[in-house]
Design goal:
The complex is a heterodimer of chains A (262) and B (392). Chain A has 262 residues and is α/β, with parallel strands linked by helices. Helix content of chain A is 42%, strand content 21%. In chain A, strands 3-2-1-4-5 form a 5-stranded mixed beta sheet. A 5-stranded mixed beta sheet of chain A has the order 8-7-6-9-10. The chains are: A alpha/beta (262), B alpha/beta (392). Chains A and B meet through helix 2 and strand 8 of A and helix 17, strand 8 and helix 18 of B.
Amino acid sequence: MIVAGVDVGSLTGKAVIMENESILSYSIVPSTPLCEKTATNAMNQALEKAGLSLNDIEYIIGTGYGRLKIPFAKENVTEISCHGKGAHWLNPATRTIIDIGGQDTKVIRINEKGKVIDFAMNDKCAAGTGRFLEIMAKALEVKLEDLGPLSLKSTNPVTISSQCSVFAESEVISLLAEGESIINIIAGLHESISSRLIALVHKVGLQKEAVLSGGVAKNIGVTQCLNNKLGVELILLPADPQIIGAIGAAIFAKTKLQTSKN
Amino acid sequence: MDIHLRIAETIANSIEKISQAEKEGKQVALINYFVPPELCHAMDLIPIVPETYMGFFATVNPEKVIEAQEAAENYGIPRELCVFIKGPMGLALKNALPPIDVVCSATGVCMGSVKAHDFISRHLKCSDFLIDTPYYCDDESIKYVVNEYRECIKALEKYTGKKFDYDKLKKILEISERGAEYYRKINEFRKLTPSPLHNVEGMNLWVPQNFMSGTEDVTALYQSVYNEVKNRVEKAEKIVKEERHRILWITMPIFFSFDTLTWLEEKYGAVVVMEIVAHSTARIKMDPSKPLESLATKALLSGFASCANGPMDNLLTIQSIDAAKEYNVDAAILVAQWGCKQIAGILNMSKKFFQMNGIPTLILDTCIADERNYPESQIRIRLEEFFEMLEG
């Protein structure tokens, strides 16, 4: 039984191919303006890695903000449900998922069966998301993947007071002009993003085990800030944190296929 | 005619009457919620609630809302301010209000509304009066508000040169109560499963009474709606194809997105069976022999009071949980009006309280009347997530 989940997000498209209880392959590709193209790119890459063709996939479920535009998906399921399902499949003890995506942030509470029981999402503003860090990395001329390790060297994180990504970028440039160290600025940005996230976490309540997913979970600086502020050790799941939603979609696909076969 | 169109037509006719007031030699009082329109009618003053214009225009001509907002913003009012505060100021700045003879406001909705009306009275250079409304509702508060109404009546007499007619007020309260009785009966039907009203019908039903109470027009509207709903119930008409969720809507509806309200019915069988802004108003019976006491009680226990003024207990227990039981709801949606500090103060506590009482709750952060601050796709994503969670 080969199934797939495809997650079309704002910054990346992800595809996961599963056979029974195993992940055969996965892909993460940059998003294009066309959701169909992003989904196709992600799927083709995952198929190539698994040595399969689209005809080999028995059931595909789409998720993410572009889920309605995935031409080869038989159904679509919302991101919240897919993240819940994917995190629970990877770690059944999971009860809270903090997902920091490209342009939205979600905190999801699930029960022992992986069913979503509450959630909260950021509204109107991308100041607590991956996009925020992308903009700042560009302004600081630092590689995105270097932000985390660099911030750990900071002894005196600066306070970023701007609530808006655009103003925060101006503030960062001003801080650089004043001679503030890049390391302290990056640490300050991580503090800022974490503070926003904490407010969202408290909207739904934190229950252990709490896991971190989404591209920003790869940033050790943000992870440590969150751990310190929440007073718990957020768990990183045993998979690339960017593909949790696509895994969840694949699990839904598997269940759908099983149900239809019975 | 469809019920929601009848509601819109009644409001449109009322606005038309206001625009003709000067020609007909009638005086106009600009009021906010909490100022009983019945007091104005008793003095032959035509009440205008400019906040209502924002809701109405959002439904029929959203561009007009944006024009009013932009007029205020161009004057220097921050865009982040609530549409219902900024809009009336914008209407005044654009000279889009009919000639106003007196401004009469009440605390209790929010201080922003009071300040907006203060701004309008200064801008239009007309007299104003402020009714102070206590935070709590008890016997002392009712006495206090009655006294405030007496002072307001004196001021209106002075400003308009008209004598207040208490006998007329009693008759107006009788009209008001007749309308309210039909409204209560309609809401009794909404307790039935399946609900006999579409979302766009039920959710806008409370709007006219906020500024038209005491008029034969609104009483006739509720009577006609009651007759139609009764007919639907007797014929066992299925209004929503498959009712799967009964929703309690806290705060006000999203005025311009009727498509989303219909989509909720069609995709999820989700029917809004009660709105907290309307719930208490539906329950309070007025006694024409005690007109000022009745109006004070209605104001202090109004749905607006529960959301914007008064202790949390009023909103959470007296209004919401009682309504949830009476209307057999299985979920709640709380709209956090953009730029409203009062709503911001009750959000998470309300959500947690409802959840403790077994009512899953979604908070929608949006503006309900200014399309510029209404991200339709984001709203639908959140609604989809919520209903998928309920059905998962």
